[in-house]
Amino acid sequence: MEAATEPQNTEIPATEGNGSGIDLRVTVRDANGEIVHQECKEGDLYLYNWAVWLVGILKFGFNAMVSTKYYYGLRRDNTQRSGYGYVEAVANGDYWAGGGKIQIGSSTQPASILDFAIAVPVSEITPGVPVIVSTGNVVKVIISGTASFASQTVVSEAGLVLTDLDYSNNSTYKTLVTRDTFTAVTVPAGGSITLQFELWFNGMPS
Amino acid sequence: MQNTTKGKPGAIVALKITTRNAAGEIIAEEYKKDDIYLWNWAVLLAQILKLQFAPMDTTTYAYKNTAGTAKVTTATYLNGRQNRWGTSFEGMWKVQIGSGSNVPAITDYALQTWVKEVQPTIPDLVTLGNVVKIVFSSTFSFTAETICAETAIKATGCLSSTIDAASDFIITRDTFTPVTVPAGGTVTLQHELWFNGTPS
Questions:
Q1: Which of A26, A174, B82, B137 is most buried by its number of CB atoms within 10 A?
Q2: For the complex shown, is ipTM > 0.95?
Q3: Looking at CA atoms only, how far is residue B84 from chain A in angstroms?
Q4: Domains in chain B: boundaries
């Protein structure tokens, strides 16, 4: 990996608490639809790739024609993701549309912002339409999806993977933007697991 | 109830304000640590994510442009570089400065009293441990004495098929201690979008 793929380390004031803006809610059901496990994890991480993905949008908006500033991350297949900010137009489902997924895995390796893939992939699902919820000045974007398993399956990690906005809907150009681990759960045969990501802004869960 | 908060906000906007006189000397500095993203920010993110997950779904999101006009996103559409619907929004986003001091709320859709807007610097990514932030700055010059007290990040056109004033919307609005910029002076605003941590 080239040195440029490493994030820039610059002095940042110390932080108070975790300060993360992601909640992960995990619900496991058996074949009868009965809940057999629930967990709400607070303080999960946005990955460095989230910032790379987001900064590309901002740079395109602010100054798209200056190509001297590149942003580097790693795609989920461990190839370098570099770009100076593109947002390809989308209409009627073409280009990068339709590429976003929730990935599910079975590793318990703690998350780090330099993660670029689920450690032990198990399944990949398409989430539903995001929902925006607000109370006072707190606003959340909520994403959820459900995976069903025909046989008993152990699950303990999840992440959101997005298609880069500067490429067509190519499976190579996908970037993991969050990765979280949770208490390992065994989904019984015929059961399901529902994962709900909550992206919090201007506040954290109580 | 899931929306109560504890401690400092999680993903937040921090803002540094530096005011200089005509000789370039700093005459005022402030660092604000808990400014807010607006509802429109969530709409922008949700629309992009919706197209990632369910591009043909008919769900739309409601927002207001900078004129206060109620609008909705187009379910299957986002403007961008391919230029198939006219001009792309590339290079059209700005940082605005104003003189209003109304307390920000996520329902804000414009500066209270617009003064000026400029193109900010190209954003940088900065990390320490698991904290990551996006940083950019904007310098405003004034030929006459000017009072400044608020700022916003203005996005143009990405949610609309036509790029015009009606396609402008703001995604953050923050106020700060009012500063009087002397004639020939400047004020520099540094926006910091924090993730996984908050300033101490």
A1: A174
A2: no
A3: 8
A4: 12-195
